[in-house]
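FIELD: query
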Amino acid sequence: MTSGILLFAYNNSHIDYAKHAIFCAKNVKKFLNLPVSLVTDSKSYLQRQYKKHVDVFDSIIDDKTSTEQTKKFYNGPQYKKLTWNNHSRPNAYDLTPYEKTLVMDTDYIVSNDSLLNCFNDNKIKITKDFIDLCSERDDKTLLRVSDYSIPMLWATVFYFSKANKSSKILFDLIKHIQENWNFYRLQYQIIGNNYRNDFAFSIALHIMSNPQVDLPGTHYYTTDRDKLYKGNENSFQFFLENQTACGINNQNIHMMNKFDLNEHIDKVMQ
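FIELD: result
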């Protein structure tokens, strides 16, 4: 398998990322028609709980090396403080079974085939240009790694090829940044102690003088302060933080409210 999708799923007490991964993978198969591999610490749970759906994955890679952090997960105005396992993303180069790999978050919903254009060459692809569905919101924390630092690149979805020597250099550098996170977060004036992949990728590519190019297509997002109230496989309607309603059809979207996404996937699976 020379080209494919790599997902990561590490459950916590309230959010079933394995279930998110199934929904994400089914949309990938529908719109991109590519093999999907899942990296998870919940392989036995996945096979037991979702045995009717687990065949959507071409391979399941068992990985228990991720390190837990805690953060606030919002569901509109309310939140829960939960564990957050996000340390395995820098291992994507080592874990992927593909020569050309598109990595995406399990809450990134593919609804068209624009990302197929990633695989036309071997250039590293990532973007800083996600579009907020709430156009009135002015959240500068999603634009830069800190107020006076470098632009933030979204590690929500990115592409790399092992035929490009810069890819190995990138992931080795990200591992180094992760291992020395306190040093780099101070150097780049990052507020908070938690390691973030968005920031680590942004720092690494900045050090490498930005060899990447933009991802193809248009990429939207809603935050965890927005509420999903209706949807299907590729059409969604939201109540946004500013009390307005908004719908989106046939567009790729990063849906950050994990609790609403959980409920939506339950309805789709039924």
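FIELD: remark
Helices lie at 17-31, 43-49, 92-95, 165-179, 181-187, 197-207, 258-269.
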